[in-house]
Structure formats: structure tokens, C-alpha cells
Specification:
The structure holds 2 protein chains of 2 kinds. Chain A is built from no helices and 11 strands. Chain A is mainly β. Chain B is mostly beta strands. In chain B, 0% of the residues lie in helices and 59% in strands. The termini of chain B are far apart. Classes of the chains: A mainly beta, B mainly beta.
Chain lengths: 114, 110
């Protein structure tokens, strides 16, 4: 069964350092999402891609966060510099817009900023 | 701005009992999702509800959608320990952009 892949699964970094997360969606899924989930809360959408184009990044803190999906397949989310408040689970999901727009989530990256 | 509210946020119930989790949302939508999340894990899709009156069932879980009332319910029948998890509803407003509730953490006790 096809799955969304993410790496690393866990990351510990110091405040002010740079950190990057990688996501490989299900093959053929044109839409890719990055979510941030703070402990005890629901996921919050950071950025949505359709192929290589950004559809929605209204909740992305653009002074420190960036996201790219250069070839419309895998994607990278970067934080520079990391802050203590960035500690969270970062989830990637993908969907096929031709279907029901059901999102399939990857295992997530747990980020701890010290 | 779309708001999605779930209640209760925490639910402790005994095995064999029935209960309902509620998901209210603030603006019109005809697409709603339910997910399950185990501690430290990612989200697992449970149900996709696409129209008013939609009802879906899987095992001991049944979800329904009333778009006029802007309400979805997740009903648990004869709870078992394996159902212990956090359950999220998410409302889709625009081209797959989902807004999530804060989740309901369910604990089923023997």
C-alpha cells in the first residue's frame, strides 16, 4: 500500500539553528500539504501545494519558514532560525484532486527545540 | 474564519457503553472528515462525509453529517479498549484546505 514518507522522524535542535524536513507524497498525488500540530491541538495547515505551485501559505510564518516543491513531487519545509515555540509535530499529507480529496498523512516529524 | 469545535475534549468511558462525540462548525461546508490519532502517531482517516445526511459506519464507529445544522457526530457503540485514541474532525472549506477541531481524547476503561 502506498504511503507518504517523511524524514527525519525525530529532530532535536537548538534555538537559532536551521532545520529541514522532507516529505515524499504518494505517487501521483498532485496536492501536498504541510501541517504543524502542537501538543494537545489539532493540525494547522502551514502550506498547500498543487504540483509545484503554492496554493495557500497564509498561515506560514514567512519570516522564518520556507517550503518548496521544485519538481512537483517531494517537498522540503525549512525553519531558520528555529525558536522554542516551533517545537511540534510536523505532518505532511497528500491527496489526489481527482478523487474525494481525502488526505493521506505521513508519520510526521517530531521537532524539539532546546 | 471557519471555526471547528469538538465536544467533549476528554471522554472517559467504560467498556461496553455507548457515547457520541460532537463536531460543530461555523460556516457552510458539505465535506467533513473524521480521523483517529494514537499517541505519538500520525492521523488515520476514518470517514469522509460528502453530503447532507451522509452516514458511514465501520465496526463500532458511526459518523453522520447534518450540513444544515453544521454538525457532525461520531457515535461509539459498545466501546472497547482498542478504541482509546484522540479523534479529530476536520471541515473542508476550499479545494482540500481542512480546518481541524482540537480533538476528543477518548479513554476506554475495563
Amino acid at each position: 500500500e502506498a504511503e507518504v514518507a517523511q524524514s527525519p522522524r525525530y529532530k532535536i535542535t537548538e534555538k537559532s539553528q536551521a532545520v529541514a524536513f522532507w516529505c515524499d507524497p504518494i505517487s501521483g498525488h498532485a496536492t501536498l500539504y504541510w501541517y504543524r500540530q502542537i501538543l494537545g491541538q489539532g493540525p494547522e495547515l502551514l502550506v498547500q501545494f498543487q504540483d509545484e505551485s503554492v496554493v495557500d501559505d497564509s498561515q506560514l510564518p514567512k519570516d522564518r519558514f520556507s517550503a518548496e516543491r521544485l519538481k512537483g513531487v517531494d517537498s522540503t519545509l525549512k525553519i531558520q532560525p528555529a525558536e522554542l515555540g516551533d517545537s511540534a509535530m510536523y505532518l505532511c499529507a497528500s491527496s489526489d484532486p481527482g478523487q474525494v480529496v481525502e488526505q493521506y498523512f505521513g508519520p510526521g516529524t517530531r521537532l524539539t527545540v532546546t | 474564519e471557519l471555526k471547528v469545535e469538538q465536544n467533549p475534549l476528554f471522554l472517559s468511558m467504560q467498556e461496553g457503553k455507548n457515547y457520541t462525540i460532537y463536531c460543530n462548525y461555523s460556516t457552510t461546508s458539505d465535506r467533513l472528515y473524521w480521523y483517529r490519532q494514537d499517541p505519538g502517531k500520525s492521523l488515520e482517516s476514518l470517514f469522509v462525509l460528502l453530503s447532507n445526511g451522509a452516514v458511514k459506519q465501520e465496526g463500532r464507529l458511526m459518523a453522520s453529517l447534518d450540513t444544515k445544522a453544521r454538525l457532525s457526530t461520531l457515535h461509539i457503540t459498545a466501546a472497547v479498549h482498542d478504541l482509546s485514541a484522540t479523534y479529530f474532525c476536520a471541515v473542508d472549506m476550499n479545494a482540500g484546505k481542512s480546518t481541524f477541531g482540537d480533538g476528543t481524547t477518548l479513554t476506554v476503561k475495563p
